[in-house]
Amino acid sequence: MPTMNSTLQRTIRASRLSKDLISHHRLQSPRLFSTTRWRNIRTTEMSESQLAAVKIDRDRLWKDLHGTCEWGKGERWGDGATDIGMARLTLSDADKQARDWFVETTESLGCKVKIDAMGNIFAIRPGKQTSAAPTYAGSHLDTQPTGGRYDGILGVHAGIEALKTMKDNDIETEFPTGVINWTNEEGARFPISMVSSGVWAGAIPLEKSYNLFEVGGGKATQKSELKRIGYLGDLEASYKANPIGAHFELHIEQGPILENSGGKIGAVEGVQAFRWHIITVKGRDCHTGTTDFENRSDAMLTAAKLILHSHNKAQELGCLASTGILTLKPGSTNTVPGFVRFSLDIRSKDDAKLQALEDALKSDFAKIAEGEQIGGVNERGVKGRGCTVEWQLDTDSPATKFHEDCVKCVEESAKDMLGTNSGNQVQRMTSGAGHDSVYTSRHAPTSMIFVPCRDGVSHNPAEYCSPEDCGNGAQTLLGAILRYDRLRAERAS
Ligand SMILES: [Zn+2]
What we know:
Blueprint: H1 6-24, E1 41-42, H2 48-52, H3 58-68, E2 73-76, E3 84-86, H4 93-108, E4 112-115, E5 121-125, E6 135-139, H5 153-168, E7 171-172, E8 177-181, H6 195-200, H7 206-210, H8 222-228, E9 246-252, H9 257-261, E10 265-271, E11 273-282, E12 286-287, H10 299-316, E13 320-322, E14 326-329, E15 335-336, E16 339-348, H11 351-370, E17 388-397, E18 400-401, H12 404-418, E19 426-431, H13 436-440, E20 446-451, H14 467-492
Parallel strand pairs: 1-7, 6-8, 6-9, 9-20, 10-19
Antiparallel strand pairs: 2-3, 4-5, 5-8, 10-18, 10-20, 11-16, 11-17, 12-15, 13-16, 14-16
Helix pairs in contact: 3-5, 3-14, 5-14, 10-11, 12-14
The chain binds zinc ion (ZN).
Zinc ion binds next to loops.
GO molecular function, one term: hydrolase activity, acting on carbon-nitrogen (but not peptide) bonds, in linear amidines
């Protein structure tokens, strides 16, 4: 495009917005629409309908997203131009390319870019109150080795698209706004997930994070790779040195709930609690041919009953229970195993419910192992001599509750975009997986926005989120940021 006088350009933009706003609803604040003199539009002066009329550019978002997915391409899974997964491991050369793009793009939008000691990148668009902590959109550009194009990447791109839209429409926020690219959310290359937001939140020591070696026996550490690609920043990675005003994260749901229920947007209220236990069942090895059922202490049979009971009890209490690891000894066809160890992952959106499940299982497991009639699992079969059960807590992650102000901003923005909430298109949800937002929520008002992904599939090259759903998510994100800015200003005055 030939260069235009910049005042003229802004006037054109402002009048283009005016037309959108007029067509969307009746004018509520006529001073915004002066064509004789251009002025910035402030969020505090925008009515609901004016807020709703600020539209992101859905095509630009889609093109930008697939543009950066050229760096770190993974497995092809279909015939389409974008039917290619991602393998952009954190701090790799491809990750550096994506980061460089992030910095260049946000700087070209007038952002100030800061990089902290974990390589987290903070791009900040100034607001009226220059010294206040920014309202951010944050997510991650790194992927799993067999990842897709939307997990994390969509959240970062939607944040940048929001900044572009604010610039296009000459919107002036009361507080600074910005986008964060969190380092190594996936934990795939250096094995702690959400590690850099964790360091920022003071939950993970910096040195521990720096000294993580890459999986697969390589010599690189997280610190050496940060240095190598030029993203070892000198800003302290800390919520104290670098505070966040609020954090909104758009993410694909990574589960089937929205898709199966016709939902378009999830307003995420929090992340469920989980505890990982290691359960050890001890019985006695014996010969499978010479020992009758009455005289066995069959650790494997007991473990099977315990796992079944954990499923039934979790269902009864509205929780989840899963076993993903199971080992047994001695591991011989003709020996009844006397030793079994298995993992028990229990989850609930409510800490008290999780505790109730755990208490019930602790009591029931001991009784079931003794052969008592609990929950129907010992109803049939032969009692035998019984086994013992030991519990060991491995990981304890309490429920995260996001900030109601932020959740409401997401909900209102989504309802505005869709024009209606028929068919439960906007739903309040709890995240089943962890995200950087878990750590930001410890020190800043936070919420997340979920959009459906096909078949609920993620961490898979064929992960897919439609252009419509990507656009819906980004539009909701922008609306939530603007609403929150207005709310912050109201609260501060
Ligand atoms: Zn993610």
